[in-house]
Design brief:
Number of domains: 2
Strand order of the largest sheet: 1-2-3
Protein name: Tryptophan--tRNA ligase
Structural class: mainly alpha
CATH architecture of the largest domain: 3-Layer(aba) Sandwich
Bound molecules: adenosine monophosphate, tryptophan
Largest sheet: 3 strands, parallel
Keywords: Aminoacyl-tRNA synthetase, ATP-binding, Ligase, Nucleotide-binding, Protein biosynthesis
CATH class of the largest domain: Alpha Beta
EC number: 6.1.1.2
Helix content: 40-55%
Distance between the termini: 16 Å
Number of strands: 5
Radius of gyration: 21 Å
GO molecular function: ATP binding; tryptophan-tRNA ligase activity
Strand content: 5-15%
Family: Belongs to the class-I aminoacyl-tRNA synthetase family.
Length: about 325
């Protein structure tokens, strides 16, 4: 039986539900980009979570975004030679099988307590109109991660609860059947990030474009959103201001990052400096978006398709090998 030698250490995914926001870049992509250069980091793998998009969209609505998300990853600095990139639906059967085994280890009540589900329920979904897939979402996420036996998962703060469920499922499985899965940890640069919407309403998300910096948008639109963004009165601390600073630090060069630091010092000393802060952030953002969009325009669809097919085979081999371990541990291999 062939053994894959692509042992995954860092693993993450993004749903193809529309253009990426700068929050996706900061929360999920940047940690992998930053660590990919470090010698001691093992193999990294990212994927387009097209099956997860099925929770709130039809496949034909998201299919055309799949290649786009891969282009986004690469244009944000993911090194194609260092990273494996695949599309989740390459592994539909393997995911479905692990889902089946893991679903036995979690109760309906536990699933109903997941914060992301509770949030959807607040937004109008309820037991009579929400699909079972929505509630099963965290199990599918655990299957993605555990099939690759990944140790680290870079995600934003909104996904931390899902990683916790993945750990619980892995722990329960290991306890019951023997040590098959490593317990994955959240990977972030500092504490997990939550970028607020620039309008101040909730988190920045593709689903609320008015407060989001969409990487593909005409740059002028994004710069205008920064100009009008919520911040804070002199001396005051706010989540909106923290998010702006995080964006500024992400897009800024060293000089701009230093400027942001000294502007923030003056802010806490009581000076009115929000206009100045937004100016520095805009300079960095304009350069960043320009470089991103140029790089993205240079990428060819045929190269992307070739890459995801080759890497999809590797991910599938890993998944099959994990399932063999799982079945053996559970005693499911009678024949
Ligand atoms: P999604 O676009 O919901 O598929 O999210 C993809 C990744 O981006 C996940 O790791 C999220 O945690 C991260 N992410 C999405 N929105 C934000 C946000 N506002 N702040 C930080 N990370 C985020
Ligand atoms: N649930 C994540 C999101 O909505 C996407 C995702 C699916 C993911 N499976 C994953 C992220 C596995 C990391 C690892 O953003």
């Amino acid at each position: 039986m062939e053994n894959t030698d692509y042992k995954v250490q860092v693993f993450t995914g993004i749903r193809p539900s529309g253009g990426l926001t700068i929050a996706n870049a900061i929360g999920a992509v940047n940690p992998i980009v930053k660590i990919q250069e470090e010698e001691e980091v093992g193999n990294t793998m990212v994927f387009v979570a097209d099956l997860h998009a099925l929770t709130d969209a039809e496949p034909k609505e998201t299919q055309s975004n799949i290649v786009d998300v891969v282009k986004d990853y690469i244009s944000l600095g993911l090194d194609v030679n260092r990273n494996r990139i695949f599309v989740q639906s390459f592994l539909t059967q393997e995911i479905a099988e692990l889902n089946l085994y893991l679903s036995r280890l979690v109760t309906i009540a536990e699933l109903m307590r997941v914060p992301t589900l509770k949030e959807k329920i607040k937004k109008g979904q309820n037991e009579s109109n929400a699909s079972a897939l929505l509630a099963m979402y965290p199990i599918m996420m655990a299957s993605d991660i555990l099939l690759q036996k990944s140790e680290y998962v870079p995600v934003g703060e909104d996904q931390v609860a899902h990683i916790e469920i993945t750990r619980v499922l892995a722990q329960k499985f290991n306890k019951k059947y023997g040590n098959v899965f490593p317990l994955p940890k959240v990977l972030s640069l500092g504490k997990p990030v939550r970028i607020k919407s620039l309008t101040g309403n909730g988190k920045m998300s593709k689903t609320d474009p008015s407060g989001a910096i969409l990487l593909d948008d005409p740059i002028e639109i994004s710069l205008n959103k920064v100009k009008r963004a919520q911040s804070a009165f002199a001396k005051e601390k706010s989540e909106s201001l923290d998010s702006l600073v995080l964006i500024g630090e992400f897009v800024g060069n060293e000089k701009e990052r230093e400027e942001i630091l000294s502007i923030m010092k003056r802010h806490y000393d009581g000076e009115n400096v929000m206009g100045e802060l937004k100016g520095v952030i805009s300079t960095g953002l304009e350069r960043f978006l320009k470089e991103f969009q140029e790089k993205k325009a240079s990428l060819k669809e045929e190269d992307i398709l070739k890459k995801v097919k080759i890497d999809g085979d590797i991910a599938r081999e890993n998944a099959k090998e994990t399932l063999r371990d799982v079945r053996k541990a559970m005693g499911l291999e009678y024949f």
